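[job 4471] stage=fold_predict status=RUNNING
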Amino acid sequence: MAEELVDVVIHVKVPKKYAEEFRKDVEARAWYLAHKKELFENLKKLKGIMKTDKSWKELKRELYEGLID
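[job 4471] inference complete, writing structure tokens
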């Protein structure tokens, strides 16, 4: 069963030149939290299929970092 999503409104003051970047970072983090379970289920399905020298931990870290960028 999917978790209930709620709206959260936070007012912060940031320098104008960073406002859009800050908004995008917060939205990316919120998207990740809302989809975290399905993302890791998909990763588990792919485990062992992809040939790589990287560890499972490194691949998970790269996935998370890719969502933030």
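[job 4471] summary: The first helix runs from residue 19 to 46.
[job 4471] exit 0
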